[in-house]
Write a structure and sequence with these properties.
The complex is a heterodimer of chains A (94) and B (197). With 94 residues, chain A is an all-alpha fold. Chain A is 54% helix and 0% strand. Chain A has a domain of 59 residues. Chain B is 45% helix and 11% strand. Classes of the chains: A mainly alpha (94), B mainly alpha (197).
């Protein structure tokens, strides 16, 4: 196991946490959804833990996206077919 | 800018999937994009280590607050106005000349958002999550933080039941400083425990 590259090691008080706008969006969707449905954060966190455990080397926000998809499907908020057919929302960068 | 316009066709599969999820949820009226954006903006702009730094500076200067903080961190932090999602079940652990504390979330990325903001990238990496437990002294040294062998290192595994924040030691020579000056010295990394002030 190796450390992440030097630039990502903590040496200052920097705040950069998202590598890509969709990371921020994925996080915002999960937080908004849990809040909207009145669920405990654990409802999402458990799925995130499971996705990370299933593939520890997968990029973090890929696991986050997988966890979000599994939550949405299990709660019957969408079907795989609906997701396949959806036109991704055009969004300006946050 | 038009030249940089990000067409859906250019999206990586997982990015496209997340966009599709958002699209479906919005279409069904479960979410609206403004709410999602507002959450991200709030996280980025209003939450962050500057809040935790105020908690630490207050603890350094107010013994009664420090006692409250170590006894019931959630309530003490909330009394300063830094509560909210991911700020429940806070536990503050105090560094002393004999003990150095370091925080990790071994299973995912539990982290106190109201006081520290969102976790830095390295906090979520497998390397940090594994090595903080297995060889914290070596990891800290590689991060530029040397902890001598006579200082005990305690590793705290954050979860949704307990989110840890390190109370760093107040640096020497700061007796005359105002609480604002003290807060300005406190770094995010010192409150995770990967840095000493």
């Amino acid at each position: 196991m190796t450390l992440p590259d030097d630039d990502s090691l903590p040496r200052d008080n920097g705040n950069l946490v998202f590598d890509a706008p969709w990371h921020a969006r994925a996080l915002g969707i999960a937080v908004a959804l849990v809040d909207k449905l009145g669920l405990p954060w654990d409802a999402f966190r458990q799925r995130l833990m499971d996705e990370i455990a299933a593939d520890p080397q997968r990029p973090y926000y890929d696991s986050w996206g997988k966890a979000l998809e599994s939550m949405v499907l299990d709660l019957d908020l969408a079907t795989p077919a609906a997701l396949d057919a959806a036109t991704p929302t055009e969004r300006a960068p946050l | 800018m038009a030249a940089d316009h990000h067409h859906p066709a250019d999206l990586a599969p997982i990015e496209a999937r997340v966009a599709a999820i958002e699209s479906v949820l919005v279409e069904k009226g479960i979410l609206d994009t403004d709410a999602v954006d507002a959450i991200v903006t709030h996280l980025e702009e209003n939450l962050g280590p500057m809040n935790g730094a105020q908690v630490v500076a207050r603890a350094w200067t107010d013994p009664a607050f420090k006692e409250h903080l170590l006894d019931d961190a959630t309530a003490a932090i909330d009394s300063l106005g830094f509560g909210g999602p991911q700020g429940e079940h806070m536990v503050v652990v105090e560094n002393t000349p004999e003990v150095h504390n370091i925080v990790v979330c071994t299973l995912c990325s539990c982290y106190p958002w109201p006081t520290l903001g969102l976790p830095p990238k390295w906090y979520k990496e497998p390397a940090y999550r594994a090595r903080a437990v297995r060889e914290p002294r070596k990891l800290l040294a590689e991060m530029g933080t040397l902890v001598s062998d006579d200082v005990e290192i305690r590793v705290w595994d954050s979860s949704s039941e307990a989110r840890y924040l390190v109370l760093p030691m107040r640096p020497d020579g700061t007796d005359e400083m105002s609480i604002g000056e003290l807060a300005a010295m406190v770094t995010r990394d010192s409150m995770i425990g990967v840095q000493r002030l």
